[in-house]
Amino acid sequence: MAEKMKFARWSNDLYTGRRSYPIVQRRRTWFSVAGAFAVAAILILSTKGLVLGIDFRGGTEFTVEGVSSTEQSLGVDAVQSVIPLEEPRVAIVGSNSVRVQTTHLEDSDRLAVEQTLADGYGVDEGQVTSSFIGPTWGQGVSVRALWGVVVFVLATWLFMWIYFRSWRMALAGVVAMMSDLLVAAGLYALVGWEVTASTVIGFLTILGFSLYDKMIVFDKVRENTLQVLDQSRNTYAERANLAVNQTLVRSINTSVVSLLPVSGILFVGAMLLGAGTLRDLSLSLFIGLAVGALSSIFLGPPLDVALREREPRYREHTDRVLAERGALAETEGKEAELAAAAAGRAQLIPGQHRGNAAQPRRKRAR
Q1: What are the DSSP E strand ranges found in the chain?
Q2: Selection from 146, 215, 217, 220 nearest residue 181 by Cα
Q3: pTM of whole model > 0.90?
Q4: pLDDT over threshold 70, residue 104
Q5: List of domains in the chain
């Protein structure tokens, strides 16, 4: 109960401004961290690359059901006994099924692989099924997936520009979302899991959640910075930082609530049960939700502030606020010095009177 009260007090202090973290003020640090992650993701993607699934590259896929052993080496040996130079990709599907993917095989080779897979896993030949995906169809899926991301990003940028009436907020939001997608893709390539159609759906879901979280934060920034240039108490950066602190608890709660079910799907459905489709979807969602929540706090609003302060009117307003604040502090300092001096004289004068009055009394006593 005490911890709950402390959290509620902490949340209330953030919203009222009694407690504040200098998130916007330390934007150079966050930009450096985000840049380092982006560079690392680009290096991983350029060197290791994404492992494209059969949906994108095309090929032949075999599914062996009802196996007693799910050892991946059995599938590799079965394929290479027919085609020695082939490097198949073997994955466990569920608790008693195996999926084997190869390049495009002719009918004679496909039938031979089916037979060797059945023999290798000790099942009937009828328990081995195969399907073929042509390279043209795979390329079409890749192009459509890329266009889906491009259209989503452009639509998001246009929507945020119209809603916030600011191209700076729109640009900051889009850059933050693209950083989420880049880091998620880099981590996905680092893990080495295949990129399937489910992965693309997960990436698009990442963008949707990232947009939702950033809309909440930017809406509060807009609310706090209305007519900010018409006053001289706070700068744009200070009011934007207040908005980030006010939405900090909401972002944390939303992210935790979203990550809990995704974690269940990832670690229970994918890791323990071996559901390949769930694994592809949940991993991309898990990475994207975590990164998206961080960028909504540490990248989007600070980038908006950095773009604003490049404009002369915002820069002049910041200089004016700081100058007036400095002049007020100097004036208050002088008034405090005068008050202290007056208080010192007031303490000294009564003492002198008491001393002068004491001498006549001693004379009368004599």
Answers
A1: 51-52, 59-65, 89-93, 97-102, 128-133, 194-195
A2: 146
A3: no
A4: yes
A5: 59-133 (3.30.70.3400), 138-309 (1.20.1640.10)
